[in-house]
Design a protein that fits this description.
This protein is an alpha+beta fold. The protein is about 15% helix and about 40% strand. The strands form 7 sheets. It has a 7-stranded antiparallel β-sheet. Strands 2, 3, 4, 5 and 6 form a 5-stranded antiparallel β-sheet that branches. Strands 11, 12, 13, 14 and 15 form a 5-stranded antiparallel β-sheet that branches.
Length: about 475
């Protein structure tokens, strides 16, 4: 009996060990299968992680930054200001900005004559935009002072403070600009006013002459801001391009048409780092000559911020046969490198006399405008900022107001898209976006305010809107191109 119990116990122990061994084996097998499966999932996920990140990133960029492709759309030019408007003789020198679905269109309203003298006010019309339709408000006087003429409106949108600034200058009413240049002493004031309600009302203008013209050594004979809009850099700095005449060591060396009462002309900038409270002198395009030793006078100027925070300044030149001059600043406009002639950017240099003779203009060239905007996706270019340029694209007369495009930071320019074929003069560009409430995508659009007419280049000031698709189509079809002046 005892032997039987020992045998039975041994049998039970053997069975238990066998069962435990099978269970352990089964569990080990299952664990192995589970571990291997988990590892395979991890490997697959890790392999997919990079592409998934890219897809997710692209999706976010598309909804946030992608621009919609629209049907080409443009409006017919519309007269905003004109000669004989109210008490005014002539409307000249346009400037425009867009903010909060509102266009702010400025100009000089000249009371006594069409020339740069006499009683002149800076006036404004506000255009409420709803889609592609604009409802224009009444004329309002923004800047005037008894005994002075108010000239060269330069509006700036300060996106930091949500404020519109207007820089301009005052010159004694009946003192000609050529007298100031001849005498060599400035008798003018540089002013700035601000609007906190998008142009409905304006603050009392502040005199910033002492910190700008007062700091020039030697002092200028004449300074003029802009004309056309100013800009705010990504750093927050406000920048106003302009030009000044000064009696320095270069002036007496010039001759014939290049001698403006022994002064030299420079395109330059003034700037503010505190949202327009105080202003200081920036850089200028250094004096230079072309390959034929013709002086490059940098005159009325416009500026744009391009990639890497660089600033491009683009100036009118006063020689009848020279194209426009451009220069680059790598320090926010504090200094500029040497100017170079932009051979594609021809500008008018001649006038027609009463006797129907074509002769070089004493002060040749014409004001122009530039505006920067994000390079639209899916276009792939070397530059993240594209630049639009407007001016009368003729090497002879003020005519053929046209638009050009640069995709490489103002190094090269497209052929011109002609938007007004008859007489035309000064112009200013602005850029605005509209977001589709359903898709969330944005469209890229522009407006240009420009002098134009059938009799003279300043019969009226016209306004036109167009989108980027219309622009690109116009550049492809128009191919308006003049051989560069030599």
């Amino acid at each position: 009996m005892r032997c039987l119990r020992v045998l039975l116990r041994a049998m039970l122990v053997g069975v238990r060990k066998a069962v435990l061994r099978d269970v352990r084996s089964c569990i080990s097998t299952q664990l192995l299968v589970i571990i291997v499966s988990v590892m395979m999932v991890v490997i697959v996920v890790r392999q997919m992680q990079g592409p998934m990140d890219v897809v997710i990133k692209e999706e976010i960029l598309q909804t946030k930054d992608m621009f919609a492709t629209m049907t080409p759309q443009e409006t017919e030019p519309e007269v905003i200001f004109k000669s004989g408007m109210g008490i005014y003789n002539t409307s000249r020198i346009p400037a425009i900005v867009h903010h909060k679905d509102t266009f702010l269109a400025f100009c000089e309203a000249r009371k006594d004559t069409s020339h740069d003298i006499g009683n002149i006010h800076i006036v404004l019309r506000r255009g409420q935009r709803s889609g592609w339709k604009v409802k224009w408000g009444e004329l309002q006087v923004v800047a005037s002072r008894h005994g002075y003429r108010a000239m060269n409106p330069v509006p700036i949108v300060d996106k930091v403070l949500d404020v519109i600034l207007l820089v301009y200058h005052l010159i004694p009413t009946w003192v000609s600009q050529w007298k100031l240049i001849r005498d060599g002493v400035f008798k003018q004031l540089v002013m700035v006013t601000r609007s906190f309600d998008n142009g409905e009302t304006w603050t009392i203008a502040k005199d910033i002459t002492a910190s700008t013209l007062g700091q020039m050594k030697p002092p200028p004979a004449l300074y003029a801001p802009g004309p056309g809009h100013g800009i705010q850099l990504k750093s927050g700095r406000l920048l106003v391009a302009g030009n000044y005449f000064v009696k320095d060591e270069v002036g007496p060396l010039l001759h014939y048409l290049d001698n403006f009462h022994n002064t030299t002309n420079y395109a330059n900038v003034i700037a503010s780092d505190d949202n327009g409270e105080t202003w200081f002198l920036g850089g200028r395009i250094p004096f230079g000559v072309d390959p034929f030793w013709r002086p490059i006078h940098g005159n009325e100027a416009t500026a744009v911020e391009i990639d890497k925070g660089h600033v491009c300044i683009n100036g009118r030149t006063l020689h009848a046969d020279l194209t426009r001059v451009v220069a680059i600043s790598e320090n926010g406009g504090e200094t500029f490198g040497a100017g170079r002639l932009a051979r594609e950017l021809v500008e008018p240099g001649y006038i027609l006399t009463d006797e129907k003779f074509v002769i070089p203009a004493k002060a040749a060239g014409c004001q122009a405008s530039m505006i920067g905007f994000p390079a639209p996706r899916p276009y792939v270019t070397d530059s993240g900022t594209w630049v639009l340029f407007s001016n009368p694209a003729s090497p002879k007369f003020r005519e053929r107001l046209s638009i050009r495009l640069s995709k490489d930071g103002c190094k090269t320019w497209s052929p011109a898209w002609n938007i007004f074929s008859n007489f035309s003069g000064y112009s200013d560009l602005t850029y605005f976006e509209m977001r589709n409430p359903i898709t969330g995508l944005k469209s890229q659009n522009f407006a240009v305010l420009f002098e134009a007419g059938n009799t003279t280049s300043h019969d009226s000031i016209m306004f036109k809107i167009f989108n980027i698709e219309s622009l690109l189509g116009g550049l492809d079809k128009g191919k308006l191109k003049f051989d560069p002046a030599v």
